[in-house]
Amino acid sequence: MFSLETLRREWFGNVRGDLLAGLVVALALIPEAIAFSIIAGVDPRVGLYASFSIAVLIAFTGGRPGMISAATAATAVLMVTLVRDHGLEYLLATTVLAGLLQIAAGFSGLASAMRFVSRSVMTGFVNALAILIFMAQIPELVGVPSLTYVMVAAGLAIIYLFPRLTTAIPSPLVTIVVLTAVSLFFGLDLRVVGDMGELPSTIPFFLLPDVPLTLETLMIILPYAAAVAVVGLLESLMTAQIVDELTDTGSDKNRECVGQGIANTVTGFFGGMAGCAMIGQSVINVKSGGRGRLSCFAAGVFLLFLIVVLGDWVAVIPMAALVAIMIMVSIGTFSWESLKNLREHPRRSSVVMLATVVTVVWTHNLAIGVLVGVMLSGVFFAWKVAQIFRVTSDLSEDGRTRTYRVEGQVFFASTDQFAAAFDFRESLEKVVIDVGAAHIWDLSGVAALDRVVLKFRREGAEVEILGLNEASATIVDKLAIHDRPGAMDRITAH
Q1: pTM of the predicted model over 0.90
Q2: What is the C-alpha to C-alpha distance for residues 273 and 35, in angstroms, rounded to an integer?
Q3: CA atoms of 206 and 367, how far apart (whole Å)
Q4: What are the residue ranges of helices labelled H in 309-412?
Q5: Alpha-carbon distance 405 to 390, whole Å?
Q6: Dihedral over Cα of 162, 168, 173, 176: its sign
Q7: Does residue 37 surpass a pLDDT of 90?
Q8: For 213, 222, 274, 472, which has the most beta carbons within 10 A of its beta carbon?
């Protein structure tokens, strides 16, 4: 609930740390926003304006203080075909629609679906992201002067050693200042931020996407908008969960969905592309001391100030400094403990984690990797639960009645075991099926029960079902056919 205490804590509880961290993040956002614009096939200012707009808006509307949102590769890669076939205006319209879809998702409570993402998938997501962050730096380390490697090494040394002297100033910020000063003082011939593209010299302004307001336009942009909305929310919610753990604090995931939607919708009207939370920048922010909403707001404001007012100075920052920072992020993001846990954790958990990593790295699509991980987790869980199942039986003293006692979960993965546990050739007058220690979950479980009952009746035995719990009784009463007219004909027809 909103209160003055919440406002003070989230905005002004860590002013100095948030402002310094925001400056570091803003400097690191510039080359990434330009790179993501290039990926999407649009002018660099589209990504830079988007990063400014999203960062500022999400600071007010998001549900996770201290998390950084801006233009991202995850959403940029989804727009390549759209931009190539239809142009920039359709990208802006798609951004607006994607935001509206995210707002709807937030209000409908879809963020609760995150509980189906297992710890193994989370670890795989983090490790894959760390690998992708490192891989993104490789172009800056291949075919470059040998001096670049010296500068990157020097940057890493400052990042890891400077905190031993003082933590008053974020070491990534010191790295940028020192390496830029050295490069300018000695006139070093190094690749700089300005080499990645022209920085805009004006602030963004409101405009309506110049597209026909027709059903045809909607059909063109809807598939792209839906994909952007899903991927953006998935990455944002996963990042929020990671920042929750890094800071030992909680966050409002549904509010985050709505916030991301508002940020994207407004950004589309200011000439920006869609974005979402950024794990790399969020980690930089947290490790630089950023904790509150002010850090994300400051990152957006500093970004605009840097590119519009101090663009000439920003353009001379050597890429080696930013590469060193991103390598630090990659190293800090990767869960090194997970390598040791490959031996100690259950094999199925390790398979899920590795499958998530391989899929994300192979496809460069976080959504596909997480989907594969969640599906594998579901399959392994169903298989494991299906093994916790057994059927025992007792024959009455007169040999006329057999009581079967079912224990465990009756659902699609255990129906074969359920059906195989009954002896239909035994001559009996009555069969009692006691499911007091079992639970029938789905249509497959009900259908298996139907088949067992009808097969015994076909052999001339009376069948009685005992012990159905309330939930099982509800689904059996609704879906079962063994007591309905013509049930025998229907069961033999399949």
Answers
A1: no
A2: 13
A3: 31
A4: 311-314, 319-333, 337-344, 347-363, 366-387
A5: 8
A6: negative
A7: no
A8: 274
